[in-house]
């Protein structure tokens, strides 16, 4: 498996290429749930902007030790904030893409690639003020770009398959999140054809 940095950069480049292929007449159409396509793409683009922001927020503790524990942490935060907060942040991020979202995403992609540099591992401060190592955080952003890339492609009607390293990392992380949430048996039984997942089940 590639390093977390290399896989994340692969996801960033694939995401930027996908956004360039979105037809102009699709931006105000349906995206995902309460988001139109612009808001969905804006939400996904936060997987670029948060990395840049968090690189400038060093931490002196490691409160979250793995990518899957990050999602447990986020689930706890979201239970207090509620889904409307996530929806609104996505809409704001979509508005921030401006009149030419593809050009904006290209610029964001170049910015995060330049800012990461060699991607030396270091403790950073993430959502909720928790400390986490960069190499544990980046797989969560790769996961978001892969999953939302597929969402965007479906909404825009354009073909998209995450790169092999991105798809491998995201799929394995989904299984580890299920384990961290206590759903390992449920997911294993479904993946091996013994049962079906509960309606609407999601690891995020």
Report on this structure.
This protein is mainly α and 204 residues long. The chain has one domain: Four Helix Bundle (Hemerythrin (Met), subunit A) (Up-down Bundle), CATH 1.20.120. 63% of the residues lie in helices and 5% in strands. It has eight helices and four strands. The chain has helices spanning 4-20, 37-55, 67-81, 83-96, 101-116, 134-156, 164-180, 184-191; strands at 30-32, 35-36, 123-125, 131-133. Strands 1-2 form a two-stranded antiparallel ribbon. Strand 1 and strand 2 form a beta hairpin. Helix 1 (4-20) packs parallel to helix 6 (134-156) and helix 2 (37-55) runs antiparallel to helix 6 (134-156). The longest helix has 23 residues, at 134-156. 32% of the residues are buried. The mean pLDDT is 96.
The overall pLDDT average reads: 96
**Fraction in helix:** 55-70%
Largest sheet: 2 strands, antiparallel
Q: Got a strand count?
A: 4
How much is the radius of gyration in Å? Answer: 17 Å
What coarse outline follows from CA principal-axis ratios? globular
The CATH topology annotation reads as Four Helix Bundle (Hemerythrin (Met), subunit A)
Adjacency order of strands in the biggest sheet: 1-2
Strand content: 5-15%
Query: How many domains make up the 3D coordinates?
Result: 1
Low-pLDDT runs of 5+ residues are: none
CATH class: Mainly Alpha
The structural class is: mainly alpha
| Distance between the first and last residues' Cα | 23 Å
Tell me the CATH architecture: Up-down Bundle
The helix/strand order is: HEEHHHHEEHHH
Number of helices: 8
